[in-house]
Structures are given as structure tokens and as C-alpha cells.
Amino acid sequence: MEYETLHVQMFGKFVMHYGNTPVALKKQGSAKTVRMLQMVLLAGDEGIPKQELIDTLYEWTDPGETISRNRNMNNLIYRLRKQMTAAGLPDESLIVIRDATCYWNDQIPLEVDTRDFVKLYEKAQHAIGYEQTTLYQRANELYLGELLPANLADMWFYEKSIYYKELYVKTIRILERTYRRYGSYKELVDLYGRAATIYPFDNWQPELIRTYVDGSRFEEARQCYNETRNLYENELGMPPTPEMRQCFEYLKRREHSYIQKLQINERLEDQGGPAPSDLGPEGTIAREIFGGRFRGAYYCSYSSFVDYCRVLMRSMERRNRDMVLVFVALESSSRRERGKGKADMEELDTQMVILKEVITSCVRCGDAFTRYGSRHYILMVVDTNKRSCRRICKRITDTYKQQPDSTGEIRCESLRPQDVGIQTGIWEGQRQG
Asked: pTM of the prediction?
């Protein structure tokens, strides 16, 4: 006989559905029957020793009561069967005992969120790239709250809850690194927002506020700060944490800077030019152009890259500089034909983001590069000959291969202005003169 699947949720609350029908256990008998069922479900395929069930449910008593406790345990299993049958499940022994160990009756299909959560997490550990991120996302979204919060006073359930919480936090830390690498602010907001809802006193709000600020969502950041401050004052009688106060200062600085830029842009549009206060060594324009810290090669749009290269070519009139264009192509490491499906394109884009970070770290901050098409980057390397370019290409290739999520192959080609018939220092205007 084929049975429906029993679906069980234990994250956040205890809910069961047999097929599409909710399972509501009547309040007859002891709550020990429900706790026993939950312990067997959490034990999974390994089962749980019957003695462990007895010790947890009946606590430690006189050893002379072992026989009576064992009899009570058998009665619990029988009462659970009757309660589940009354709730719509088949009239079967849901818990079977083999070699003094209790198991769920595998004749009745079972889906438990805690099992699925662990399986997704373990599968993600052995995956790479886009597939790995997707698996961690699914595991993270499956965690809807603390494990069986009504049972946390019981040490057995509390220890299990700590285990699942640690895995949940690990999914957050892994996903946040991926999201930050790709600039996925919406995903970061969702990630921290869920964590702050599930664990409002675990200090996830500062992460959420900083993400709001980095995305210039200042109103949401301020609202999150105020709600968290009120929560701590009303529930704990405490002021905001040091991290929260730092976030508030960060919010004020970033919002002030953002408003200043908007005001400058509006004034320039209205007045047709900069105000006197924007000019000079203390002015906003000079500070914005000359300020900031530079890390690695400069990435820009293709049109800006062309303008940058043309300015360099013009400077060769005054100084004979060595300049080399380097074409970096990302190719599939698989011999099969490249796929054009959504998953293939998402994986390609993921690899291009990784390659962008590699180029930024491997090339000097005085050089620039841009993306061209779906598989190519173009670098303009200054004061470097072709031989040095080969070393740069090797450094990019080796660094890319060292990235844990890299799956492609790198091919580089270099080209000098002379290779396309352009003579350095000789310009069209000079020829005409």
C-alpha cells in the first residue's frame, strides 16, 4: 500500500502535514508523546537508542524503576500511534524498535526540514560556483527560526538547536562573501533582514544598516536603527550596542556626503558652472578628483577606456612611452560545446566577475582595463614592453587558477601601437604641417 508523505517543519515551530492535510494532534495524553516523536524525527536514519529516549523523557530516577520506565515508554509509542491515526495517518506503528534503537517507520514517506537543511548544506560544501551559491541560498531560506522553540528548556533539544544555528550562521557568512564580491546589495539586505528577524538580539541589525547605507537607502537604514533601538529599550532596558552607535555615525557621514553631492550637482545644473567655494585647493572638485585610495588596476566602461587610451597616445608626442594592449579571454575548460542556457550564462558572468577581481589585484593602479563582450577584458599597460606583458599575463592566469570558484581557462594576447602601423610621436597634425 502506498502512503502519502508526512511533511514536518521544526524550524520556528512544529507543524505537520500528511500529504496536503494538516496534522493536528489532540491534547489527550502526555506531551511526552510529541517530544518522543520529535526526537525520533530529528535522529534521522541513524535512529535513537531507546534508553536515550527514556532518560530524556523521564529524566534520571531510581535504577530500580527501569522496568516501569520501559513499560511507560512502550505505552507512549502506542498512544502516539493512536493520536496520529486519529489525526489522519495510517494505523501503523510509526516508531519501530530494532536492536534497542527507535526508528521512524520507513514505509511512510517522510520529509523533515531539518534533514533537508543539513543535506543542502553538505551538498553545497562539495559544489562550486553558481551551483554552490544556489545550494547555500536554499539551505539558508529553509531555516525559518530556532529549532522547536517551545522545547529549548530541555537540554537535549537545546544542544540540537545550537548545532542547527551554527550551520545557519555559516550559510550567512559564506553567502555574504559571495554577495559582496558581486555587489549584490538586494541579496545582502534579504540575508541580513531574515537573520535580524529570526535572531533580533544577535546584533544582525548593524550588518543590515551598513548594507542599506552602501546602497544609498538612507531612509530604510534610519528606520532599521530606530526600530532596533526601541526593541532593545523596550525588551531589554538597554541602550543601543556600540556597533549600533557606530552604524548611526556611519549613516550620518554617508548621508551627509551623499546630500552634498546632490546639492553640488543641482547647483551646477542651475548656475551653469561651479560655485567659487567648489574651486581651489580646499574645494569639492579638487578633493573629489584627487582624493580617494586606489587599489589595483582602474576598471572603467569601454567608452571611457577608449578616451583614456587616446589621451595616452597624445602624451606620446611629448614622451616616447611603451604602451601595450593586452586582450584577456575567458574560455571554457570543458571540451564540450559551450552552452547558451540561463545557467551557462550565469556561470560565465560569475567567472567574469572573478576574473575582474583577479585583474584588479594583479595589475598596477596606473593601468586601466575594461570589459568587451561576454568573454573578454582589454588592458592598457603603460611603460611596459611585450616581455613584461608575458609576465603580467602569467600572473593573471596563475592567480585566476588559484581562486576556489574558478572553472575556466585564460588566454592572453598583446598588441603594440606599432603593430597596427601607428608610429609613436608622429601625429596627423604634424604630417600636415
From this structure: 0.61
